[in-house]
Amino acid sequence: MTGRIREDVIVAIRERLPLDQVVSDYVALRPAGAGRLKGLCPFHDEKTPSFNVNAALGFYKCFGCSASGDAITFVRELEHLSFTEAVEVLARKAGVEVTYEQGSAAPRQQGSQRQRLLDAHRDAAAYYVAQLHESPEAEIGRAFLRERGFDETAWSHFGVGYAPTGWEGLTTHLRAKGFTNEEMLAGGLASQGQRGTPYDRFRGRLVWPIRDMKGDVIGFGARRLREDDTGPKYLNTPETPLYKKSQVLYGVDLAKNDIATRYKAVVVEGYTDVMACHLAGETTAVATCGTAFGPEHVQVLRRLLMDQDEFRGRVVFTFDGDDAGQKAALKAFDDDQRFVTQLFVAVQPDGLDPCELRQQRGDLAVRDLIASHVPLAEFAIRSALARFDLEIPEGRVSALAAAAPVVATLKDWSLRDEYARRLAGWLGMDEQAVLARVRGGAAPQSESGERARRRPAAPARPDPRDPGLIVEREVMKLAVQRPVMLGPEFDALDTVVFTAPAYAAVRAGVAKAGGTATAVGGNEWVTRVRDAVETDAVRDLVTELAVEPLQTVDEEDQRYASSLVARLEEMALTRQIQELKGRLQRLNPVDQAIEYNRAFGELIVLEQRKKALRERGVGAI
Predict the structure, then answer these.
(1) Are 305 and 260 in contact (CB under 8 A)?
(2) Closest residue by Cα to residue 206 from 175, 235, 166
(3) For residues 187 and 240, what is the distance between their CA atoms, to the nearest angstrom?
(4) Backbone Cα Rg of the chain
């Protein structure tokens, strides 16, 4: 048995390997003042960075989950290693030889299992690379790469190799290096034969090394080349002590620095797509390895992006333009709503993946594809709309029924309402109806029978904090508290300018009570409005509006009231303009020239009216 690791080994590691350099292999760190650094904690899920590193002292502390320690503790706990294994990992990175109390270096066969497997993968990767460059048999692999626009420099940069067709090429090579059958099986480099003899897992295939963020090879992905190969198109390393496919992103070792500095990550579908993106200048590209993009992949990218409340980072998915690609994108939409505002999709209309795109149209086409990304939320909604004929009323109604639940799944209510308004424009439908459909306009009824059917539906109480409804709420507070300040301008407003059914109901009650032009305000006016509305819920809302303070210092400022009314009209015009633009998008300017020109003329008039109202509304909320 080997003795304890010598203390001078630990000292040498700490001297040569600053803590921030170790942590940066896993987490993007930003300066936090006074020689300190901060990032998202890798030990627990958090939105705001609370993981602090003092590089000068060599210690870290998370003020969210209380994790703390030095570099050895960090690697040991994050990688689930023993103390000795963690020291070996850091010693290798620092270029320090591990020696023990009795004074001798650790014999290779007595090294930790993890380090032994890493060494085996390193040697396997070198073997595969040599085969690709030197073996006549590997010409099929070299031709495959050249046909896709990758030269020898590219092969070397990404470490691409070739696995010979023989059954024991790699296993024989690794045995000569001192590795056991058990180690090759444990690392997924070999498979168990029927007679108990291991044989090469990868045979007759191109092989890509899969590295962790530190750059260590932990697995391989192998692509089928021959028609007589009956295996899957891509064969990956199985789950091993090193390789957990749900936590691995191919190319992350090459992309991590640019992801952290450019606040962007591009997620593609395959190894050659990563190569194509990097060679085209999109050096933040990574790919999943034989599995769908999932929550653990999200966490890896969030730590690199240092994702936090200001949502600086972007993750752009590029999927093939087929059904499978769309399903992958929509799954990403469902996986992590906390991350959804930073998720984008770029799909090539003709279905070319980044590798094919670069091969056929060059590097610029790949960069243009990434630059054309749209928010994932928009992609999900438009995918729902694409199944219907929006030229006919029945199609638009069915499309609304399909898309409204997608919008409603957005947990950020301000984002949800914004996309509801966009959906109205895309459908060319009344925005109020779409908003009501998304929000759910009617409260459930507990009564049954004819009496329940006669009772008016109670509009849902709007959230007072909803920024999309602040102007509507402020105008209705004026209508209840200071009707004289609004006067005829308010009475001339159409009910449709109110997108919240509850505010529209109060507006109807004000009109029924005689309108603001004849009102004098005070308790009697509030009572008249309360008596004029139809449901208890709206009566309660009238009371709420009557007592809530206005968002202005001078509550008698006539300009405040006028600007609010102008702003409300402008917002309504904006929705009309969006609806008209949606209609124009569906019209053919050649075959439907008369209707198109009429709609375009109407759009010009609406834009001019909006500009005038905007000038009047300066100073409104």
Answers:
(1) yes
(2) 235
(3) 6
(4) 32
Cβ-Cβ contacts under 8 Å for 464 (sequence gap 6 or more): 473, 548
Q: Is the dihedral of CA 248, 250, 256, 259 positive or negative?
A: negative
Which residues does 369 contact at the CB level (< 8 Å), separation at least 6? 318, 346, 348, 354, 357
Decide if 154 contacts 275 (C-beta within 8 A). yes
Top mean-pLDDT range of 20-34, 87-101, 162-176, 601-615:
162-176
DSSP 3-state of 205:
strand
Mean pLDDT of 383-412: 85
The rounded distance, in Å, linking the Cα atoms of 85 and 190 is 24
**Selection from 338, 347, 353 nearest residue 301 by Cα:** 338
The string of pLDDT tens digits covering residues 22-50 is 998 888 888 887 678 888 888 887 777 88
Strand partners, 344: 316, 375
Mean pLDDT in the chain? 82
- The residue with greater pLDDT, 184 or 616, is 184
Q: Which residue has the tokens 């200071």?
A: 482
pTM, to two decimals: 0.62
Sign of CA dihedral 131, 136, 142, 146: positive
* CB atoms near residue 567 (< 10 Å): 23
Of 271, 167, 164, nearest to 209 by C-alpha is: 271
Closest CA to 328 of 305, 345, 353: 345
Q: Given the structure tokens 């993981």, which residue do they identify? A: 51
CA gap 329, 346 in Å, rounded: 10
Instruction: Return the pLDDT at 251.
Output: 94
